[in-house]
Specification:
Chain lengths: 397, 258
């Protein structure tokens, strides 16, 4: 019933939007990318060498009533040469927003980000990760929602009703960055409602001078699956299992001159044993390094998860050290690099990202990810041969 | 005795009228600030044209909104429209008289609001020859002043004052400002870097008066003498007293700024 109502609202929103499309505003990008793998595949089903891919993400935006009502529509499509699971389409956003004096209402499909740290995003839970897009987990699938935001002197209170769960996208049999053995596409849920379970979330956030604080709670289907063996029609396989969880999150940032202190903590129950995890550290920026216009930021964070013994936990006791160079030039040239090292074994995860603009509408970006897996059987064991260099050229409009 | 009294009276009057250059500089700054008060809120569209020494040109487009805050620095919101890859990026700042400003940046690709350090006052704004501090609200107490002389700019009478930033992290030791005697707005500013070498000159032109009180320019041209680069900033669609409030300048409005 509720879903039907949401659908109706969305159809109305669509009609409202496209009926007014005369003053419409389209923007977005199209991109071509090449991912080159420097090491040979670990599993014979996987592709070797490199892979071409195309992506397209247009954005439609239209507003009325002086911006008090607006419709945003962001479809996304990717085609990948070798991995059919990576070729996919999604609606990132299709949302109607109404703004009033001290509240805002969003109905439709939207993306929401919570958190402050750089190396991972523990608190961020509303949207499912579109993992086939990028191993960094920063690309998200659109989430159906009704979101009321109360904007008061005592802070901002966000209330979310989230009907319709999205499974995490996982690379296919032919793809790299996948579990070995492969994860079957039969999905198991704790809830008998499966992906129709309605989830709820609440977040309060406030700024106290130099401090930005957020406290959140989520109840519903975990965005992170447990990978368990299960009997499927194809026999005993590894499958994703989605628990019903309760997760409380806290995120704090203190901005003290050139020091940014960042902290995120979660407490999650319902997914195996109850656990806590946190990420905390700082970012310090050197402004105008060596008499240039460039800024250089040093980032250091500690990543902890008290499920330490569980091999599926990537960052249980790890240190992230990285740097961010912003040239502040007309081409917006930027470089970001970092290493996450496990304190216990010698697993290391190296990451580099660089980008610059050419002309007014082209952006070239380079990404490299290199894994040195300490022990076999560790969290990166399956992807230890998946060192990758990615070159991407995007045309923005 | 009477003679002495008269002498003391005369002397003290003379002292009262003979302003020091510091006092006169401050008086001009206070008058400029006073004449610009009461605009409540304003908005405008901006086009930046960046030109390097080879005359390669690139264009930035943005919109800015300002909310006047009594007793503290103004609040500002800047929304970027061009180049296309940063479209939708927005910048929120609460300037303070002497404390560090509060600044947040909204990154639309990740839907992320980031609180950022306001230390970077001297850094280039969008790769241009304007620094952040050149474009932020000019509160009287943020600078020390020294009146130098009167000198016309393109036939317009002006006071020439030296301005020294009181806040941390400025990229300048000082700047020299030509302030129009009619409009009490800058016609020209010459900036000296941290080593006190000539760095940049800004020429401001095309002033128009709005609501019978507030003078705003159409064009600012910033020339960097050290790199030979130049940025022209054109303003259009000035609006005042449009009814903006604190509600239009918070993290929620930053996220949906379009």
């Amino acid at each position: 019933m509720f879903l039907r109502w949401v659908n109706r609202v969305m159809v109305c929103a669509l009609l409202f939007g496209f009926g007014q499309a005369i003053a419409a505003d389209w923007s977005g990008y199209g991109a071509v990318e090449y991912r080159g793998f420097t090491q040979s595949r670990l599993d014979n089903d996987q592709f070797d060498n490199g892979s071409m891919s195309l992506s397209f993400e247009p954005e439609f935006y239209h507003s009325r009533n002086g911006g008090d009502d607006s419709l945003t529509f962001v479809p996304f499509a990717r085609w990948d040469e070798h991995d059919p699971q990576r070729s996919h389409v999604d609606i990132r956003e299709l949302v109607w927003l109404h703004v009033a004096q001290d509240w805002e209402l969003r109905v439709g499909i939207d993306k929401v980000f919570w958190g402050v740290t750089e190396s991972q995003h523990l608190v961020d839970i509303i949207n499912q990760t579109d993992l086939v897009e990028n191993l960094d987990g920063e690309q998200k699938l659109g989430q159906t929602m009704v979101n009321v935001s109360l904007i008061k002197d005592w802070g901002v209170l966000d209330i979310f009703v989230l009907p319709g769960f999205r499974e995490r996208t996982l690379p296919g049999k032919d793809g790299r960055f996948r579990s070995i053995p492969e994860i079957d596409d039969h999905t198991f849920y704790e809830s008998s409602a499966k992906d129709k379970h309605v989830d709820y979330a609440l977040r309060w956030s406030q700024t106290f001078d130099d401090w930005d604080v957020g406290i959140s709670h989520f109840y519903g289907t975990s965005r992170e699956p447990r990978i368990i063996p299960a009997v499927t029609p194809a026999g005993l396989r590894l499958v994703p299992y989605y628990d019903i969880i309760n997760q409380t999150g806290l995120d704090i940032q203190a901005t003290l001159d050139e020091w940014l202190w960042k902290f995120e903590l979660i407490h999650r129950s319902g997914q195996g044993e109850t656990f806590n995890a946190f990420t905390g550290g700082f970012e310090y920026t050197f402004v105008g390094v060596m008499d240039s216009a460039a800024d250089f930021g040093v980032i250091a964070e500690y990543l902890y998860d008290d499920r330490g013994s569980n091999p599926a936990v990537a960052f249980d006791n790890d240190v992230f050290v990285g740097g961010r160079l912003a040239m502040n030039d007309a081409a917006s040239s930027e470089l970001l690099f970092g290493i996450i090292s496990d304190v216990n074994d010698n697993t290391r995860f190296y990451n580099i990202e660089a980008s610059r603009r050419f002309g007014d509408s082209w952006v070239l970006s380079l990404e490299g990810r290199f894994i040195s897996a300490g022990s076999t059987g560790g969290p990166f064991s399956s992807i230890r041969q998946d060192d990758v260099i990615q070159l991407k050229l995007a045309r923005h409009f | 005795m009477k003679k002495l009294m008269l002498l003391v009276l005369l002397l003290s009057t003379a002292v009262a009228f003979a302003q020091t250059p510091e006092e006169k500089g401050l008086e001009i700054a206070v008058e400029a600030d006073k004449r610009d008060q009461g605009f409540a809120d304003s908005s405008s569209k901006m086009t930046m044209t960046l030109k390097n020494a080879n005359n390669d040109v690139s264009i930035r487009k943005m919109r800015s909104k300002t909310l006047e805050v009594q007793g503290d620095g103004d609040k500002g919101l800047t929304i970027f429209d061009q180049p296309a890859d940063i479209k939708g990026t927005a910048f929120l700042s609460f300037t303070h008289v002497l404390d560090a400003d509060d600044q947040w940046l909204y990154l639309p690709a990740l839907k992320r609001v980031k609180r950022i350090s306001s230390k970077n006052k001297s850094g280039p704004f969008m790769g241009s020859e304007f620094a952040f501090e050149d474009l932020s609200s000019r509160e009287v107490e943020k600078y020390g002043y020294l009146y130098i002389k009167d000198e016309a700019v393109d036939g317009e009478d002006a006071f020439v004052i030296e301005v020294r930033p009181n806040y941390k992290y400025s990229g300048y030791t000082r700047s020299v400002v030509w302030i129009s005697k009619e409009k009490y707005q800058p016609l020209k500013i010459v900036y000296y870097d941290r080593k006190n070498s000539l760095l940049k000159t800004m020429s401001v032109s095309g002033y128009k008066q709005y609501l019978g009180q507030y003078w705003r320019p159409d064009v600012m041209v910033m020339t960097n003498h050290q790199t030979k680069k130049e940025t022209q900033l054109d303003f259009t669609d000035y609006k005042f007293k449009t009814g903006l409030s604190d509600r239009d300048f918070n993290k929620s409005s930053l996220k949906r700024a379009r």
